[in-house]
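Section 3.1: Structural characterization of target chains.
Under the original work plan, the team committed to producing a structural model for every single-chain target entering the pipeline before any wet-lab resources were allocated. The record below documents one such target. The sequence was received from the expression subgroup and is listed exactly as submitted; it comprises 146 residues.
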Amino acid sequence: MYGKVEICGVNTAKLQILKESEKRELLIKAHNGDKSAREKLINGNLRLVLRVIQSFKNRNENPDDLFQVGCIGLIKAIDNFDPNLDVKFSTYAVPMIIGELRRFLRDYNSIRVPRSLRDIAYKSLKAKESLSNKLSHDPSIEEIAN
């Protein structure tokens, strides 16, 4: 599934790799309003997005969706990065991409269970476990409720 050569219409086998010096130069140009430099930065860092979405492959999400969301994180990182800092771009971009992916997985999950309901479920499981040890059998729903 994640070994695809093409994802979202992008041929991943032919993605370019930018040197750190090229990234820094393009970042400065992009921050000065150069749209083509920004485009080159986006295209030159798509491998970074691919690498990050690998850690989300066990979520049973469509890799195209994850790639698109990761690209949004990459674009935000490009727009917000300060090239004057003595930090590699990837060090800044990876957490931004991960954050965007986590936000997507959290907010666009098919079923959202409220925290209060999860807390109740946790308490009932603890009560069931405790009662199972005391009573030496699985407690009934009434026993757990009491």
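Residues 131 and 145 are 11 Å apart (CA to CA).
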